[in-house]
Amino acid sequence: MKVSKLIGSALVCAAFSASISAQEPQTGQVQTGKSLYEDNCAVCHQFDGGGVPFMQPELFGSKRANSPKGGVIDMILFGSAAEGAGQSGFTNEMPGFEFLTNEEIALIATYVRINFENNGGAVTADDVQPRRK
Ligand code: HEC
Question: Given the CA of residue 100, which atom of ligand 1 is nearest to it?
Fold first, then answer.
């Protein structure tokens, strides 16, 4: 299946079951979040979320992924320019991903928050929009 078709069906899914997906993301959404993560984030944080020592952090037990949603949303939108970012000890800088849609950011944020031993829960497009500057 094409990625665009996947995103489309995940969005339809999200629109029709917003209240359900806020708790438990549907299988299609998790798949799309995974491919978006692999396209945009894995180059640095690695496919398995393990990061690279001294360059970029692992996402296992990520503070932002387990805290209120705003933390991880800001990190994706603004990268190292996000408030409170700029963790010491990493030589790389994280770019911002403001060019992604609210839905795409929500799917990636959800993927990160329910994988890599994180337990932060789902993020929706409605959570993302108010955090844009
Ligand atoms: C060019 C490399 C690079 C890319 C691409 C990148 N990151 Fe990062 N990321 C970093 C670095 C470096 C840090 C730590 C530096 C900082 O805090 O400013 C970081 C920090 C983070 C954190 C905070 C970790 C914590 O302690 O809670 C999260 C979450 C995160 N990234 C998620 C993502 C997601 C999701 C994507 C894809 C949309 C992504 N990153 C893309 C390099 C990258």
Answer: 38
